[in-house]
Amino acid sequence: MPATTVAVTGAEGFIGSHLTEALVADGHRVRAMVQYNSFSSYGWLENLPPDVLDSVEVVLGDVRDPGSVQDLVKGAETVYHLAALIAIPYSYRAPHSYVETNVTGTLNVLEAVRHLGIPRLVHTSTSETYGTAQTVPITEDHPINTQSPYAASKAGGDRLADSYHASFGLPVVTLRPFNTFGPRQSMRAVIPTVIGQVAAGERTITLGDLRPTRDFSYVKDTVAAFRAVGTASAERVVGRTFNSGTGEEISVGELVTVIGKLMDAELEIRSDADRVRPANSEVMRLVCDASRLRAATGWAPAHTLEEGLAATVAFFRDPANLARYKTGIYNV
């Protein structure tokens, strides 16, 4: 029986590259959209083993262009839509670009899936759409409270996905991951920021606010959640939104202590005002209730925070990997 084709937008990124690798391991052929660039760079896909890449068709394109999206999804059994602008600090500087990518780009994916009759679309949301927790743990019924232009643009994409299911019966399911970490993550995120600085020899770590708490999931668990909602029976998942997360929270300050112990390093923290979000924009607490996802698909996280951190430390301690990062600057 020939392998089925699935399509992934944002395949060159952190989670997208891990998802692409896992989908190939599941026996699929993956049509992977990489944002067009003049360097012909495939991002993190270039780090996948040759036998994995044999089952990946890399397509240079852009979700902001409807034609690119139509060509990508044509003939796919499932579309995983991960392409997005995600850096919160940069969304303060360039909010228009977030709307173009995260709202209009999502609209283009929805339209392509609708007109080409694709059987399943998995749309990616973010826990940032909830804002600071009003009740904990956060269920999918928690109010949406967008505290940054990034969060607002992602909530806009979510609402479009919901409307296309209600209006056209589009077979879309939304996954809302809480904070994901692991190898290949951008230095704009807190865990690579800390580990990268330590791996580069720093013992005074530059950070922003240490008080916010987050629910951190290892990337393989988040990828498993994508695969779960992508393959579950339609009656269980289509038209619904699902959180994925561990249900455990840790503050940024406590996280630094855990990483210091793992890396056998005594760390001091230096506060950098440039890394602190505007007061009303900082999300102070996020902790996930993933019981809806567990009930619908059987998904559950398989890795502890410490296990995931150990794998991430090993990645950044590889000189070839560390060389790809700029650990001495604030990566917006």
UniProtKB/TrEMBL annotation:
**SUPFAM superfamilies in the record:** NAD(P)-binding Rossmann-fold domains (SSF51735)
Instruction: Provide the residue span(s) of the region labelled Disordered.
Output: 134-155
Q: Which domain of life is it from?
A: Bacteria
Coiled-coil ranges from the UniProt annotation: none
What InterPro entries does its record include? Arna-like_SDR_e, NAD(P)-bd_dom, NAD(P)-bd_dom_sf
Where is each NAD(P)-binding domain found?
8-310
Name of the protein described by the UniProt record? NAD-dependent 4,6-dehydratase LegB
- Please tell me the species this chain comes from: Streptomyces thioluteus
